[in-house]
From TrEMBL:
GO terms for molecular function: polysaccharide binding. It comes from the Eukaryota. One of its GO terms (cellular component) is membrane. This is Wall-associated receptor kinase galacturonan-binding domain-containing protein. It comes from Oryza rufipogon (Brownbeard rice). The lineage of its organism: Eukaryota, Viridiplantae, Streptophyta, Embryophyta, Tracheophyta. The keyword Transmembrane helix does not apply. Keywords: Signal.
């Protein structure tokens, strides 16, 4: 074999190996760093989301897409900007939507000894890649008031006193993007909720509405090659 031919063969095969490695790395990154799909309860968690089984595992993707799985309950949680996460009720990878709810808000609303209404707008708690879906959401508003609102406003807005009492009220607005719900002397917090199937929703069922959750969509993580 001529030395120059042999040399060319080495160069080509080295080039080929490098090319294949780079392609594999890029593919792994696009899949969320190469973590295999895993089950959490009934849900299959796959790219761009990822689960670690222990702290020894290396991260498989951006932290915003980390799903914390409680193995004993099968609950899957994504982290929110305020720490406590949103629990995932369902995922559609095709439509890029998550059905989630905020267990923390529910806990606060139903607590017997430290009952309080939400003070964080849902939109403010979402991590950067997530947005509230444009699907039809109703607007569940909680008011924390310094004094009782006038009777006519009470009626007009269809206010329901919450079980936390102390001048706290719930109201169910038609559309989430409608913010014409100002009430003087009250701090308002806005939550998107889905209309429960087969029933006319009603603010007196606020806990059930919070538990029913809402839809968020996600943007695909940007890879180092700048692709989405
Ligand atoms: C969770 O459960 C799965 C399957 O049952 C198991 O493989 C995994 O090690 C568990 N993870 C933890 C952190 O306990
Ligand atoms: C899993 O959920 C149960 C029940 O909500 C809770 O008691 C437990 O602390 C959770 N485990 C972890 C690791 O968060
Ligand atoms: C987790 O799962 C259990 C059982 O499915 C459920 O009762 C509980 O409300 C869920 N959420 C949290 C935050 O533990
Ligand atoms: C899993 O699905 C079954 C049937 O749809 C449901 O009853 C159960 O609550 C689900 N479990 C969790 C952890 O979501
Ligand atoms: C979960 O989402 C899938 C896909 O969108 C859908 O077919 C299924 O009915 C949903 N399940 C529940 C319990 O909402
Ligand atoms: C209303 O807001 C005050 C001040 O932030 C808080 O201490 C109180 O618990 C809130 N009341 C309810 C019912 O959430
Ligand atoms: C919630 O959103 C409303 C309307 O966008 C805003 O006026 C209000 O300041 C927000 N509340 C908090 C606690 O961020
Ligand atoms: C109303 O507020 C007071 C003082 O903050 C608190 O002690 C009381 O438990 C609250 N009432 C309810 C029903 O939560
Ligand atoms: C809301 O629902 C409750 C029972 O769920 C009912 O008693 C009440 O009359 C309803 N209010 C309105 C305004 O429909």
């Amino acid at each position: 074999m001529a030395p120059s031919f042999f040399f060319a063969l080495v160069v080509v095969s080295a080039w080929w190996t490098a090319f294949m490695l780079a392609a594999a790395a890029r593919e792994a990154e696009e899949r969320g760093g190469g973590c295999p799909a895993r089950k959490c309860g009934n849900l299959t968690i796959s790219s761009p989301f990822w689960i670690t089984q222990s702290q020894m595992d290396r991260p498989c993707g951006p932290l915003d897409y980390l799903v914390v799985c409680n193995n004993s309950t099968g609950n899957a949680t994504i982290l929110s900007s305020s720490g406590y996460g949103f629990e995932i009720k369902n995922i559609s990878y095709e439509e890029r939507t998550l059905l989630v709810f905020d267990p923390r808000k529910l806990e606060d609303l139903t607590s017997l000894n430290r009952c309080h209404v939400p003070s964080w707008n849902t939109s403010a708690k979402l991590a950067v890649p997530f947005r509230i879906s444009s699907a039809a959401h109703l607007d569940l508003v909680f008011y924390n008031c310094t004094k009782a609102p006038p009777a006519e406003r009470h009626q007009q807005l269809g206010l329901v006193e919450t079980r936390c009492r102390n001048n706290s009220f719930a109201r169910l607005g038609e559309r989430y993007d409608d913010r014409s719900n100002y009430l003087e002397g009250c701090r308002a917090t806005f939550l998107p909720v889905l209309e429960p199937p087969g029933s006319k929703a009603n603010a007196s069922r606020y806990a059930e509405l919070v538990r029913g959750g809402f839809l968020i969509t996600w943007d695909l993580p940007v890879t180092s090659s700048g692709k989405r």
